[in-house]
Amino acid sequence: MHIRSSSTSSDKPQRWPHLLLIAGPLVLLALEAALLTPLVEFFAGWMGVLASPQLFNAVFLGFILFILLSIHDLSASLRPQRWSRRIYWILANVLAFYTLLRYTVVLERQFSPQMIEWYHAAGWLFFLGITTAAAWFAFIPVGALLQWFKEAWHKAVGSGLIAVAFTLLTPDIQSLWHFTYRPFIALTSRVLEFVGQEPQLQFHHNPVLGILGYKNRLVVTQYCAEMESFGVFFLLASILTLVHWQRVRKLRMLVVFAGGIAFLCIFNAIRIALLVEIATFWEKPLLAVSLAHSRLASLGFLGLSLLLLIASKRWWCRPSS
């Protein structure tokens, strides 16, 4: 009896360190993407494809899906790593990211899209690969990563296909703005009124929203309304439900679905109101437009979706026997 109690107590706290080790590289890479995004944007040529928000979102979503589907495969092969080696890889990541940042800025400022050749793009991919690999090696040993992909390669392929399919369906998901814009606009108006603005809503044609502020007008369309982020939450929640179907408390999971969508609606309304403040009161309309179409909002919504689902898992999912 004493042995069983000791084993259970040692297994239980180990799950959180494993989760933190897996979340570590994702958080590090997300922070680096957030630092890089406001500085450069490519709209054409090789870099317009490789550095596009659509490709970034598809790859990042694929990683998240792969982790959700195969986290137990990694936990079985995960071993402790010396702190000295971990610090070495973190320093390697910082150096590689600085090189990537400088290289990207040079490409954006000194080359026109027509001047960027395939070998310039290949160099950018090389630095990006080094940065990504160093981030993962800083938290998870190389051997454990190789064993993980060896045992769960089919889940990686499935996650990639789901992420690509979701990306291809993104225009259809964005068109849902036609049917849902009224509550978003109402929430955004309340937030703006709360901070002292008096927005004038101008509907030129459904579903474009023009919010008239201090000097500028911000136009919100289906392309910057982040409807696809709601689709990501629905996708992640659906996959978790299917994976843990036998242990899911169905009614509670429905509450999580509804509560999560409501929470993200409020978050999106605050986001739109902040963009309006930047465009009108701060008189920086170009910055507001850039932020509206950047990867930062997608990262924020994806992080919130994961946090909502993982933090509430003990409530909607029965413990395994």
What's the arrangement of secondary structure elements?
Layout: H1 2-11, H2 15-36, H3 45-50, H4 53-77, H5 83-110, H6 118-137, H7 142-168, H8 170-174, H9 177-194, E1 200-202, E2 209-212, E3 217-220, H10 227-243, H11 250-280, H12 285-292, H13 295-311, H14 313-316
Antiparallel strand pairs: 1-2, 2-3
Helix pairs in contact: 2-6, 4-7, 4-10, 4-13, 5-6, 9-11, 10-11, 10-13, 11-12, 11-13
What is the succession of H and E elements?
HHHHHHHHHEEEHHHHH
- How would you classify the helix and strand content by structural class? mainly alpha
Distance between the termini: 18 Å
Counting structural domains, the number is: 2
| Outline type | globular
Number of helices: 14
Q: Order of strands side by side in the largest beta sheet?
A: 1-2-3
| Uncertain stretches of 5 or more adjacent residues | 1-16
**Whole-number mean pLDDT:** 80
Q: Characterize the largest beta sheet: strand count, sense, and whether it forms a barrel.
A: 3 strands, antiparallel
Number of strands: 3
Write down the Rg.
22 Å
State which percent range the strand residues make up: under 5%
Share of helical residues: over 70%
Describe the protein.
With 321 residues, the chain is mostly helical. The chain folds into 2 domains: 1-168, no CATH class; 171-321, no CATH class. 74% of the residues lie in helices and 3% in strands. The chain contains 14 helices and 3 strands. Strands 1-2-3 form a 3-stranded antiparallel sheet. Helix 4 (53-77) runs parallel beside helix 10 (227-243), helix 10 runs antiparallel to helix 11 (250-280) and helix 10 (227-243) packs parallel to helix 13 (295-311). The longest helix has 31 residues, at 250-280. The chain starts with a helix and ends in a 5-residue tail after the last helix.
